[in-house]
Amino acid sequence: MRRLALLLGWLVLAAPVAAHEFWIDGERYEVAPGEALRADLRVGEDFEGAAFSFLPPNFRRFEIALGDEVLPVEGRPGDRPALDMVLPGEGLAVVAHVTRDYTVGYDDWEAFVRFVDHKGEGWVPERHLARGLSREGVRERYTRYAKSLVAIGDGAGQDRRMGLLTEIVAGANPYVDALEAGLPVQVLLEGAPRAGEQVELFARGPEGAVTMTLHETDAEGRVVLPVEAGHEYLVNSVTLREIEPAAEGDPAWESLWASLTFAVPQ
Asked: For residue 55, what are the contacts with CB-CB under 8 A and spacing of at least 6?
């Protein structure tokens, strides 16, 4: 069974799912001290997706920051959930996961245009043609940068910059801070704010219904997101960048996916 899980993980993650979100899905977002923090890695759409195993060849970083410690996520290849650890102490745990690079090809030009428009990067098609690139056989490299906030015990603490190429940083603690005015977040690329960036907010209510709203960052890369008690959230933002193909058929674009998950207690 473990070999089958490994094979399926490789096959699915190698499939052309670049247009799908990637996130860390906590089994529970509030964990008692001494209990295991468990979370799945998911790929899908509209806050629904398949769970994948712990597969070290498929990620560059997988770690948890808690207090002054940064702990590597440990596991055996094929383990599911991908994260199953008991953490020392209590506070706000910040889980970070960075995938390896993947590539995807688009069957037709319109599919590529729909993707970049959907992610708020409508400038890309015009720039693609201005670079003298063909509409045929468009290829893209993509990497995912996921974070999750989980309260261990009292959940005290704050989100932090984890040094990811792109990341979403929460400006308040959803487990202990008052959020009547919303949850402020900042979108970063190489440590710098991403102004005018589209941010997707997926919300799952107590009955399981999912809604999605679009938001945009200000000049400092910040936006305040509306949140409600008793809901789980996935914040998602995608950046498209030009890359120079080293050879014919190589990707001419890269997409960098940042996500952040958390819950707001009742």
From this structure: 6, 9, 10, 13, 77, 78, 82
